Amino acid sequence: MAITAAMVKELRERTQAGMMDCKKALNEVNGDMEKAIEYLRENGLAKAAKKADRIAAEGLVKEAISADGKTAAIVEVNSETDFVAKNDQFVSFVNEVAQIVLNNDVADVEALKALAWPSDASKTVGDVLTEKVATIGENLTIRRFQKISTDGTLAAYTHGGGKIVVVVEVAAEGEKAHEVARNVAMQVAAVNPEFVSVDQVSEEKKAHEKEILMHQALNENPGKPENIIEKMVIGRLNKQLKEICLLEQEYVKDPDFTVGKYVAAELGSADAVKTFVRFETGEGIEKKEENFAEEVAKQIQG
After folding, report:
1. Alpha carbon of 107 to those of 77, 99, 134, 144: distances in Å?
2. Torsion of the alpha carbons at 108, 114, 119 and 122, rounded to the nearest 10
């Protein structure tokens, strides 16, 4: 398979590895991007396996929580530019959609768009979305939503005016439970864990990561006894698991504690944290790269 400059550029952006290393990796795996990332990681050439789907699109994430703190909804609506994300009409629309999700049980975005608009039942959510597109002048998309219910307490944290929203569930009630849930939500927003605890990490994922770490260790320590390599890999794997599991992370508000120890001290058990949902605007959407000078030139010529 022919390796193109665009492929090399993408791999470099996702891994931060050198250009020549990226080209070599792609050649080694016949152009398979995911295998090339693993090749670079195994050979210690990738600073981080950064995913291209982290490239930000514009828009907002908003949440709505019921008065009793038992139900929450998070919604992401995308726009083409950041200017629109700050538009009062757009912000109001996203807030309203979050409230609609909170007040209804819907399976997917299409079902959501088919619901009646609360202030004018002659229109659907989809109709109002279309109106906003015409009024604001940009393509707008209701991208995703999630609704959570609990017998305990839900608390939310919003970062950057709606760039990141996190909702955390704890199996406790009262002001203290709300305070802890919100502090943990701030942690999730800042550090972006993948799991609540190590117990949630599948054996398949552990085995996969261990294999990559084994390749790294063997490349870094040629000739070292296998039993020593094995101990090194187990140590590295445990460290990596702590980084991606919320309760094992260093608590950002007090580095003397892990998140688990903080929660246990406040609510009696680290197991009080049941789940979290984290939406980041544009996560998973590849943003189109535009050359502003070229765009202006085209308009002048047109």
Report:
1. 17, 16, 27, 11
2. 180
